[in-house]
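Example (one chain per record):
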Amino acid sequence: MDARILLVEDDPSIREVTALGLSGAGFDVTTAADGAEALDRWRAERPDLVLLDVMLPRLDGLEVLRAIRREATTPVVMLTARADTIDVVVGLESGADDYVRKPFEMPELVARVRAALRRHQAASGPDESALINLGPLRIDTAGRTVSRDGADVALTRTEFDLLVELAQHPGQVFTREVLLDHVWGYDYLGDSRLVDVAVGRLRAKVETDAANPALILTVRGAGYKAARPAG
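Predicted structure:
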């Protein structure tokens, strides 16, 4: 794989070791030490994926992520040392494709990067036109758009893929592990909290009352499913 990775990390030792590990896995790696440098390098080089630390000098990682999302759909995997899940929630809401907690093992990081690249390639490739209805939602899989009662609903790429996976199979229960495999592209390396956070954010955007969902349902002890059509 010759994908070009922009690694943004302010700690010199972590940056060096991670860059060496990614290069050894076959990636073409460039680095940046702060948020402002990261945006300059991203705009100049347009890498295939950005590995982005949350805590950065000058501009923090979330600011960099939001700036990238205003201009492009480049896959972004966040690196966070914080234990608080607020980083995960805010990062996913801002358009991150995935996150990895520090300290991490290189095989896990490489697997996450490859999975994000595969998802992006699949989403960018040719797709047959298809329209899926889920209650008041109209999901255009070719145009990757969602509307509710005629009004556009802005979803991140991961939220859209999650919605499509569920809506294509109304009534079918998906475990968190299966959703990790189908939507994020990995299973045993995944963190099931990633699914719960993404489902929560998706419900906040598509449900009338996210606390009492009618479209994306929790099956206690099993996972999630899309509601069957009424009638």
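Caption: The chain is about 40% helix and 20% strand.
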